Amino acid sequence: MTLLRSHLSGTWQTGSGDGRPLYDAVTGDEVARVSAEGLDLGAALAHGRRTGGPALRELTFHQRAALLKALGGHLREHREELYAVSARTGATLGDSKFDIDGGIGVLLAYASKAKRELPNDTVFVEGAVEPLGRGGSFLGQHVLTPRHGVAVQVNAFNFPVWGPLEKLAPAFLAGVPTLIKPASPTAFLTARLVELIVDSGLLPDGAVQFVAGSLGDCFDHLTGQDLVSFTGSASTAQTLRSHPGIVRNSVRFSAEADSLNLAALGPDATPGTEEFDLFVTALTTEMTVKAGQKCTAIRRAFVPRAHVDAVVEAVTARLASVVVGAPGAEGVRMGALASLDQREEVRRSVKALRDAGRIVFGDPDRVEVTGADADRGAFVSPLLLVGDPDRAEPHEVEAFGPVSTVLPYDTPAQLIDYAARGQGSLAGSVVSADPGFVREVVLGVAPFHGRVHVLNARDAGESTGHGSPLPQLVHGGPGRAGGGEEMGGVRGVFHHMQRTAVQADPDSLAAITGRWVTGAQRYTTDVHPFRRHLEELRPGDCLVAGPRRVTREDVEHFAEFTGDTFYAHMDEAAAAANPLFGQRVAHGYLVVSLAAGLFVDPDPGPVLANFGVDGLRFLTPVRFDDELTVTLTCKQLTPRESAGYGEVRWDADVTRQDGESVARYDVLTLVAKKDA
Length: 676
Ligand code: NDP
Prior knowledge:
The protein is of the alpha/beta class and 676 residues long.
C-alpha cells in the first residue's frame, strides 16, 4: 500500500517505514498509509521562512488576494475529484460539499474581502494617527506587518478540506507561509487537495507545505515568529499549548477544541409555531450533517420543560426517516463516522451521557445500513437523549457523532446558568421570536460563546444555519472551546501579523506608511491635482482654493432649493436661542458643496468619479459673510489590480478667514491610470 507523500522544502517526500494504515470509513478497506518518519520538519520550517515568506511579502494584499481567488477557481474545477475521495471518509455528497465547497468559499470570500478592506500595499495602517505632542510634530500610529515565520496548522479529521483552507486563507493574505498537518484518519483527502494546490503552480514555492503523518520534532524548531493553529480535542490542545517550543518562544497559539454547543427553544415557540419547527429542523440537521462530526453541532438542546415531550416526538419522527449508509447509495441521508476508532469513542461517550439521561431514539450498538456492510463501515445510528441538566455529563461529555441531548429548563436565568456549565462553546442558537427573551439570553450566554445565532421566522429564509462558521465572522470560543479565534474577516489576517506602535514625526510617518498625515510635507504645483493620472500623483500633492464668501442669500437659496429650512439656518430668533450657535449659521452641506465647487477641476480628465466621503465632521459654525478656503491634499493611493484606475483618498480641510477648520473629511475618488 502506498504511503501518502508530503510536500516539504519544495519537493514531494515520503516518510520511511510501513506507516500507519488509513481506512475507508465505509468499506473498511485500507486506502493509504501515513508516515513522516525521517522527514526533516525543521528544514521545512526554515524553507517556509527563507523562501515562502519573502516571496509572499513581496506581494501586496491585493496581489495575494488575486492568487487566492485563482486558487479557489482552480480547486472548484477539480471538486468532483475531491468529492470522490471525500466519499471514502464516510461523507455523503452533501457533507462533501459542506467541506469542499465550504473551503473554496472561504478562499473566495477572503479574496474579495481583502480587495475591499485591505490596501493594495504590504503594510496595514491600523486606526487613526494619535497626536502625542501639542505641536503636532510627534505622532503615534499602529502598523501591522507580516510575521517572518510559518503558520503551522494542525487539523482535525472531520473537515479535511475546509479545515486547511480556512486557516490558509488569512495566513496567506497576511503574507505568512503555511505548513499543513492534517489529522491522519482523513489525511488522504487533504493530500489530494495539496496535490491540486501544488500542481496549480499558482502559489510561490514554500507558501504551502504539507506533512502527512506525525509532526515529530517540528515544535522544537519553532521560533517567536511562527504561529500554530490547532483544531481537535481539548486534551491534545493542552499538550501542544504547553510544549516547550511554544512556551519558550511565546509562539502565537490558537486552539479550537471540544465544544458542547447549545440550541435553546424560547417559551414563545410553542408546538405549532414556525419557530418550533425551525428548532426541530435545526436539531435534526445538526445531528445528521457530517454524521454529527461537526465542532459546532448542537449537543445540548434546551427546551422549556412543558415542551420536552413535543420536541422529542417531532425530532424522533424526523430521525426515523434518516437513511444511514454508503454515500451515494439510494436514499442515504447520513454517512459513516470517519473511523471505527471514532465509533468506539462515540459509544463510550454515549455510555457516559446515559448515566445522566435516557436514550429516546436510536441504539448505539445497532443501526440499519443501506449499501454497505454495517460491521466494516463506521456507521452509527442518530442518538437522541433526554437528560438531567443538573448533572455534569450533558455539559461536559462531547459525543462527536450524531448525538444530542434534550434538556428541560424553567426560566431564562436558569437557561443562562446551564449554558455557562458548558465552560465555553463555539456556537449557540436561540430560537425565538420574542425580542425580550432573545436579548436576555443572547447577552447572558454571549460571554461563553464565540458565535450566537438567533433563529426565527423572520431570518430563517436567509439564515446560514447554526452549524456553519462563516469567513466574515469569528469562529472559536472561550474556555473548553479552545480560547482561540479563527477567520472573523480581516481579524484573521491580522492574527498573522505583528502590530507595532510607531512613534515619529509627520514626514517620517508619511514615509513609513505611504500615506500623507497632517503636518507632513505638502507639494503645490501649477498642475491641478485632478489633472494628474494615478501614477503621477503622490501623497502630499495639494491644492489650496478660495476664499469664497458665504452670504445670507447663499444660505437662503440653499434652504429653498433643497428644502432644508431647519431653524438654525432660517429662523433668527430660534437660532439665537440655540446654545451652540447664538445666531443663524450656514448648512454644513452647503459648506461641503461650496468646498467641492472650489477644489473641482471641471474639464474631462483622469478623475472618473467621486464615490463618497469618510469621517465628515462639522467643527465650527459658519456665519453669514465668513470666507471659506479649502486645502485638498492627496492622502493615499490604492491602485486596483487589473483595472484601469485606482482609488485616491484626499484630505479636505475647510477653513474660515481666521484659519479655524470648519469641516474636515476625506474625499474618495476613482482616478484613471495613465496607460489605461
Ligand atoms: P486529536 O486532538 O487527537 O487530533 C487533532 C490533531 O492533532 C490531529 O491532526 C492529530 O494528528 C494531532 N495530534 C494529536 N496528538 C498530537 C501531538 N502529540 N502532537 C502533534 N499533533 C498531534 O483529535 P481527533 O482528531 O483524534 O479527535 C478526537 C476528538 O476531538 C473527537 O472525538 C472530538 O471530541 C474532538 N474534536 C473536536 C473538534 C473541534 O473542532 N472542536 C474537531 C475534531 C475533533 P494525528 O491524527 O496524526 O494523530
